[in-house]
Amino acid sequence: MRNSTVRAVNRLTARWAAASPLGDGTHTVFTAAGVWPLLALLADGAAGPAREELAEALGIPARDAAGAARELLAALGGVRGLRAATGVWARADLPLEETWSARLPPGTRGTLTGDAETDRKALDGWAAEHTDGLVERMPVALPPGPGAVLLVLACALALRLKWIQPFQDFCGSAAEGPWQGRDLLMLGRTTSLLDRVRVAHGPAGAVTVLDMIGDTGVDVHLVLGEPGARPAAVIGTGIGVVDRTVPATDARSLPEGSPGPGLLVGRVLSDRPETQLRVVTPAFEVRAEHDLLARPGVFGLTSALDTGHGHFPGISPRPLAVGSARQAALARFHARGFEAAAVTAIGAVGGCAMPRPRYRVRRAEVSFHRPFAFLAVHRVSRLVLASGWVAEPLPYPEHQEYEGYEDHEDYDEAY
């Protein structure tokens, strides 16, 4: 996929995060990669102020939008472990411009019957099918009467990956912060690769970025900011680190002590000569539904909401305006891997015996013990596929027997 398109999508991710009313206690997940292609298809058929606003939100000229959307969706479909689909449903009595229709991704066309129950079943079925059941409903209203939906544009993304090195789960709690004293489902593991953790500095201060390597060419990056840092600023700095516009220093070169949030670097005695990176993070599951029209300026939809006249003559000779735009999203981070899915819809209306230590080695320990951000990123292109903020980790299940790390035969490797 083109670098210019990747930069444009990542820009929309940061723009969305900056405009979101996020706080430490607000968890969320969102994917601009599922919104951007739909805005591009709208821009291709828009005119007047709506076209200008959509182009500004997209970060590319409107004349290039349809081609960029097709290329992006095709590239996403080629990422292992990622399913990507686009759908366009129009009322049978809504004429569509042939030029616009011809530029749609192949296999996207469907028909709205006008019967809410029939259309709801079809749209929900499409959403569930293309997200492997992670998102079961299309996030679009189908009101009857004069405000009936004439056109629906939707994009579905579903990502599943496994860690190259899985975690060991255990019952633990945070030593400080809002999660202190709670029994949490914690995940821990040890690796010798110190470059998996980095520290960068952004507008809100230092952030610690942990790179979790997946088996499909998609990685997940956990980003911890300083206490009190705005979530949007933490996410924005994290995006800069993964797309290499913000410099970062990994734990091989960081000074000893506490060079970043949640990070300790020092030297320890070990029976092995390898360096050590010890990671502890809570498991999490985050669900969110977003009304994009609550912040229409972010997505270039302000003018397009005006139902007084049409804004998309390139789509249909019949006047059209945007009536709804929503996204339903999910992310899960667990011991063996990561899952994320989003559907976006825009509706147009009228332990062994320990040997004696022989080596003194460099060790870094990173702990995500308070709210933090996550980014799922395509490794080659550095496109952010999903992002979010973890305010509520998963509790340790009461029915699960806890043996503790100290009793586990793989303690040193797992933690």
Strand numbers in spatial order across the main sheet: 1-19-18-9-8-7-10
The assigned CATH architecture of the largest domain is 2-Layer Sandwich
Beta-strand percent range = 25-35%
Rounded average pLDDT: 90
Q: What does the radius of gyration come to? A: 23 Å
What are the low-pLDDT stretches, counting only 5+ consecutive residues below 50?
Answer: 401-415
CATH class of the largest domain equals Alpha Beta
Main beta sheet, described? 7 strands, antiparallel
| End-to-end C-alpha gap | 37 Å
Shape annotation: elongated
What portion of residues is helical?
10-25%
Order of helices and strands: HEHHHEHEHEEEEEEHEEEEEEEEEEH
CATH superfamily of the largest domain: Antithrombin, subunit I, domain 2
How many domains comprise the coordinates? 2
